[in-house]
Design goal:
- The protein has 439 residues and is α/β, with parallel strands linked by helices.
- It folds into four domains: 7-128, NusB-like (N-utilizing Substance Protein B Homolog, Chain A), CATH 1.10.940; 137-171, no CATH class; 177-233, Sun protein, domain 3 (Alpha-Beta Plaits, 2-Layer Sandwich), CATH 3.30.70.1170; 236-437, Rossmann fold, CATH 3.40.50.150.
- Strands 5, 6, 7, 8, 9, 10, 11 and 12 form an eight-stranded mixed β-sheet that branches.
- The protein contains 18 helices and twelve strands.
Length: 439
């Protein structure tokens, strides 16, 4: 018998595939209607944010060790526990009954009975749940805050325990989002009126014009604002890189590793659709997304090219933006899956790739031209470490001050780079620098 696709069942399927293949495939969620789709996304990301802690609880309440539980069954229990403990407004019976039914239908009646027994115990003991109490300090912190041990060890050494806790707590919060107004389609003041008339709670950013913080993007989606090209979801910190590049009408600008084109559209708006932007990406699938977005948002001065920028040669440009592939440790609230996918070895590989991409990008900049390097990482080796190594090889580039572009609180002491942290700045963690080619 086929099970009706619900938000809970869809979330279990996505999480089970992730456990088995280390790949977050959310395509099935698109088969749900708007409200259920949003709920399923919340389950997926929320459970991934709390996974180690949920597994600790399963270990406390299950007669079978966590590591021996079948993946789908484990995710069914994670789902029920997450619903009981973290989803405000979900009745206990709904949090328990549907996971139990999924277990009975998709695994076995015995699994359903076991799921029911575990979740009923959690329900009864909710006021006095057991707490992690491992002797190994790193393991204790990793379990409590649901981060991998290698990242916990790294953050405690970098920030100290107290600040590392604050960072991980920020990573575990439901994120807010920013809507950036697309000035190729409307004006910020007109968009603000739309928000007010729709009753959407928002906060206008003081850092950059045209950015509005909202708790959810559901209303914007339901109103068709994305389809009409009026706004796009872009974190305020992600807007810093285009801002410091400061592209001018009439210039030739390269946006490298450009997919899905969010920053390309920002650049086009800043250039008032005059001049040329070449948006480059290596992925043929993602190139299609750039084209779709540019058409939707009215970015008419964009040319698109699929290319490996390390292998191919380009003529010199006035300005180049390299928003480099990175570990994504600055966006672990919105992309909770990344904390479980990344490894120390992968960090090393990413750093090498970034260096190659930065080398390629530098050779595209004309004399007197500008190069912005940015990431959504908080790892020093991917950020200022990368730039320090770059400047040892390239004496024809100089770092430029950023105080004319960005608020002081996000800048380094010397004002030559920016770095945001989720726990300090209440936005995603991003890094960037502006380099000028001097000869």
């Amino acid at each position: 018998m086929d099970t009706i696709l619900t938000a809970r069942f869809a979330a279990v399927q996505v999480l089970t595939i992730f456990d088995k293949e280390n790949f977050l495939d959310t395509a099935i969620l698109d088969e749900l209607d708007g409200r259920d789709r949003n709920q399923a996304h919340e389950y997926v990301q929320g459970i991934l944010r709390r996974r180690s802690y949920l597994d600790f609880l399963i270990g406390e309440f299950s007669s079978v060790p966590v590591d021996e539980l079948e993946s789908m069954f484990k995710n069914i229990i994670r789902l029920g526990m997450y619903d009981l403990l973290f989803m405000d407004g979900t009745p206990d019976h709904a949090a328990i009954n549907e996971p139990v039914e999924i277990a009975k239908t998709k695994i076995s009646s015995r699994s359903g009975d076991m799921a029911n027994a575990i979740l009923r115990r959690v329900q009864r003991e909710m006021a006095q749940l057991p707490k992690p109490a491992m002797k190994d300090r790193v393991k204790l912190i990793a379990t409590t805050f649901s981060h991998p041990e290698w990242l916990v060890d790294r953050y405690v050494k970098t920030f100290g325990e107290r600040e590392a806790f604050q960072l991980m707590q920020a990573n575990n919060k439901r994120p807010d989002y920013y809507l950036r107004v697309n000035e190729l389609r409307t004006k910020p003041e007109n968009f603000k009126l739309r928000l007010e008339k729709s009753g959407v709670e928002f906060e206008e950013s003081e850092w950059l014009p045209g950015y509005f913080k909202v708790h959810s993007v559901v209303e914007a989606r339901n109103k068709g604002w994305f389809e009409k090209g009026l706004c796009q979801v872009q974190d305020i910190a992600a807007g810093f890189a285009p801002t410091i590049l400061d592209p001018q009408p009439g210039e030739l600008v390269y946006d490298l590793c450009a997919a899905p084109g969010t920053k390309t559209i920002v650049l086009s708006g800043m250039m008032q659709n005059e001049g040329t932007i070449l948006a480059v990406d290596i992925s043929s699938n993602r190139i299609t997304k750039i084209a779709e977005n540019c058409e939707k948002y009215g970015a008419d001065n964009v040319k698109i090219q699929r290319a490996d920028i390390i292998e191919e040669r380009f003529k010199l440009a006035d300005a180049v933006l390299l928003d480099a592939p990175c570990t994504g440790t600055g966006v672990l609230s919105k992309r909770a899956d990344l904390r479980w996918k990344r490894t120390p070895e992968e960090l090393d590989d990413i750093i090498k790739k970034q260096a190659e991409l930065l080398d390629a990008a530098a050779n595209m900049v004309s004399k007197g031209g500008r190069l912005v390097y940015s990431t959504c990482s908080i790892e020093p080796e991917e950020n200022m470490g990368q730039i320090t190594n770059f400047l040892k090889e390239y004496d024809n580039f100089e770092l430029q001050p950023l105080d004319d572009y960005l608020p002081e609180e996000v800048l380094s002491e010397d004002g030559l780079s920016y770095q945001t942290f989720p726990h300090k700045h209440h936005c995603d963690g991003h890094f960037g620098v502006l380099l000028k080619r001097i000869h």
